[in-house]
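Weekly modeling sync, notes
Attendees: S.R. (lead), two postdocs, one rotation student

Agenda item 3: backlog of single-chain predictions. S.R. asked that every request posted to the team notebook include the full sequence so nobody has to chase files. The rotation student volunteered to paste the first one in as an example of the format we agreed on. Action items at the bottom.

Example entry:
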Amino acid sequence: MMFSLDVTHRQGAFTLDCRFESAGRLTALFGSSGSGKTTLVNIVAGLIRPDRGRVAVGERVLVDTARRLALPVHRRRIGYVFQDARLFPHMSVAQNLRYGERHIPQAERYARFDHVVDLLGIGHLLARRPEALSGGEKQRVAIGRALLASPRLLLMDEPLAALDEARKEEILPYVERLRDEAAVPILYVSHALAEVSRLATDMVVLAGGAVRAAGPTDAIMQRLDLLPEDEQGEGGAVLDGVVASHDETFELTVIDTGAGALRLPRLDAEPGKRVRIRIRARDVMVATERPRGLSALNVIEGTIRALEPRAGAAVDAFIDCGGHTLVARITRQSERLLDLRPGRPVFAVVKSISFDRGGLATFRAAGEAPSPAPAKDAWIAPPGSMD
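Predicted structure, as returned to the notebook:
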């Protein structure tokens, strides 16, 4: 379902002027604090009326100032999950969940109570009150309450920001299941790059109230200049592949990709399983001759496609490897010493140990039943959901 937005709104000294379209399952609004993310989702939710613009989900128009149309909040059919769960303390988990469907006519409900409870793994919590829940459990219940309102769009505004790392790891697999199994598009706000790269099918980068770029996450992740300076090395390439084999002796997994075979720490996936790998720019070295006597196990042949200077000493080298692009962040001195230029054959070198678990994803095959609770160190997605 296509989500489209084109709005302008002035709030004090700050002006929001944004336009983008997305058909992704989970579209992330990414940017630093003050970039306009929350203002944008509040416009979508109907909590702020824009000075000018149009917002639509599929054929359903939520706002069109040219036609003087602005659907009231209760008619937008939007589920909203905030940073804090905002559960009713005097109600049980089951009662909180049921509240979500209370104002939806029976004929318009598509979310089933049992399915939502199973999806979020909260069946054992139904009789508890909110004070007896962990932070991650509260957020899962808040998501369930939003889903049981049978929304046409789900807004999630920094839903993990108030959680510690352990609670984030607890809830992330359920957000992944939500993205892959719930038939509702998600607009997800975050300033955490690792979170966005793990969850988002599409990405909108905001800065100063404007859209700097929008598109599939794998394409945006290569645009290191779009990312905050201290996180630019976290961007890079995303490769699809298939598990070829496991080396039990050295606890490694071999992945066949279009760019070549890669060896990485053992992944809990059967041979033949489709996977997606994120290779960070800061983890890629460049050589003009095939290295010898090197500890790094991954050496991929390629050709320099482009070199883009960045602030300070950095240069981003874009390497074409069999039609797939790897990105290496190197120094200007290395560029000169190696005489790098577009068209020059090179070797991209990646240490196996540099593949962090947050950069690995397995894909569920069509017709395959999802696991009840995806492993906390892997993304789970059906084929095509992140294309």
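Discussion: group reviewed the output briefly. Residues 363 and 369 are 12 Å apart (CA to CA).
Action items: rotation student to repeat for the remaining queue; S.R. to check formatting next week.
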